[in-house]
Amino acid sequence: MSNIRVDLESVQVTDGQGVGEGDFELRLQVQEGSHQIVWPSLNSSARVDQNGSPYNINREVATYAVDSGSLTKRFTVDVTEVDKGTLGQDDYGSGSIQFELTPGMAPKTQTATITLKRPKMKTNGAVKVTMSAQAA
Question: How much is the pTM?
């Protein structure tokens, strides 16, 4: 039997919100079954450079025991770009990342590009979320 750990590795802005907007204030929620993490925390956000390299998170989402064969796990990723101004509104996006977990597997990395928007509005930016799976 092998234990396979799945981590939320990083987030990177891939499409900014325009000249008038600054960096993104992001909050991520990753969930698979009963496993869930919120980064950085439920009522906060982290500043991510609109034109920068990936922001390293490196947080464990879950560890799975895999006896034989493969185990498919699909992670839902919800992104909120928190607008702290008095006239703005938060932007939201959702995507998913799937892994095939096998005993003794080599490390794998998967990404999802998630577009952000306000309800009933046009797209307003995008981020790339990276997760990894490897033997624990």
Answer: 0.92
